[in-house]
Specification:
The complex is a heterodimer of chains A (129) and B (111). Chain A has no helices and 11 strands. Chain A is mostly beta strands. The interface between A and B is medium-sized, with 30 and 29 residues.
C-alpha cells in the first residue's frame, strides 16, 4: 500500500526556522515526484512545489519561490518542507502528495501537466508570538 | 495568471444527481488542462477522485464521473449519499510560470 506519513504538529514563534517531513512507503520513492500543498485556516488548496527524489530536481510555484525550500533524502524515503524564518502568515495545514507529472506535445498542448494521487495526513503549523 | 473558478456551494438531495464545474479565466477548459478532482471532508486530507478529465482511481466510488461540459471540466455525482457531503476542488495545468492552479472549491451539501 502506498502511504505518505507526515511529521507531527508544530507550534513556533515568528522568526524561527522549521523543517517538516513526509515519509513515503509502499512504492519506489526515487521514481515519483512528491510535493507540498498549503491550506490556510478555512481556505482552499494552494500548490507550493515539488521535488523528484531521484535527482533532487525541484519546481516551485512563483508564489512560494524563495519563501520555502523543498528537499528530499532518498536514503530514508523522506521529503521535507523548510522555512528559515517563519511568519504568522505561514500558519496553515501543509499536505504532502505524490505527484504524477507528464508533458503533452501536440499541436494544441506543449506544457507539463501535474496532479496528485496519494496524500499525506497533513501537518499543522502554527506560528504565533 | 489563470484563475480557476468553481461554484462556491451546491446542494443535492440524497439519491439525486449534481454536476460541479471548473472553469478557467483563460478560456475553455480542455483535456490539455488535464483536470483533476479532489474530495476533502472536514478534518481530513484531500482525496483524489478523478485524474486527466475522466479517469478514476481504484478507490473512486462508481457514482462519481468526470467530463468536459460547455467549456468547463465537470464532476458529476449520480445517486448522492450522505457521506458525499464535502468540499470538492479541481486542479488545472497550464503552460507558463504558474503551471498548476487549484479552483476555490465547492462545498457540497447532501440534504
Amino acid at each position: 500500500e502506498v502511504q505518505l506519513v507526515q511529521s507531527g504538529a508544530e507550534v513556533k514563534k515568528p522568526g524561527e526556522s522549521l523543517k517538516i517531513s513526509c515519509k513515503g512507503s509502499g512504492y519506489s520513492f526515487t521514481s515519483h515526484w512528491i510535493g507540498w500543498v498549503r491550506q490556510m485556516p478555512g481556505k482552499g488548496l494552494e500548490w507550493m512545489g515539488i521535488i523528484y527524489p531521484g535527482d533532487s530536481e525541484t519546481r516551485y510555484s512563483p508564489s512560494f519561490q524563495g519563501q520555502v525550500t523543498i528537499s528530499a533524502d532518498k536514503s530514508i524515503s523522506t521529503a521535507y518542507l523548510q522555512w528559515s524564518s517563519l511568519k504568522a502568515s505561514d500558519t496553515a495545514m501543509y499536505y504532502c502528495a505524490r505527484h504524477l507529472l507528464g508533458y503533452c506535445s501536440t499541436a494544441t498542448c506543449n506544457h507539463y501537466y501535474y496532479g496528485m494521487d496519494v496524500w499525506g495526513q497533513g501537518t499543522t503549523v502554527t506560528v504565533s508570538s | 495568471q489563470a484563475v480557476v473558478t468553481q461554484e462556491p456551494s451546491l446542494t443535492v438531495s440524497p439519491g439525486g444527481t449534481v454536476t460541479l464545474t471548473c472553469g478557467s479565466s483563460t478560456g475553455a477548459v480542455t483535456s490539455d488542462h488535464y483536470p483533476y478532482w479532489f474530495q476533502q471532508k472536514p478534518g481530513q486530507a484531500p482525496r483524489t477522485l478523478i485524474y486527466d478529465t475522466s479517469n478514476k482511481h481504484s478507490w473512486t466510488p462508481v457514482r462519481f464521473s468526470g467530463s468536459l461540459l460547455g467549456g468547463k471540466a465537470a464532476l458529476t455525482l449520480s445517486g448522492a449519499q450522505p457521506e458525499d457531503e464535502a468540499e470538492y476542488y479541481c486542479l488545472l495545468s497550464y503552460s507558463g510560470a504558474r503551471p498548476v492552479v487549484f479552483g476555490g472549491g465547492t462545498k457540497l451539501t447532501v440534504l
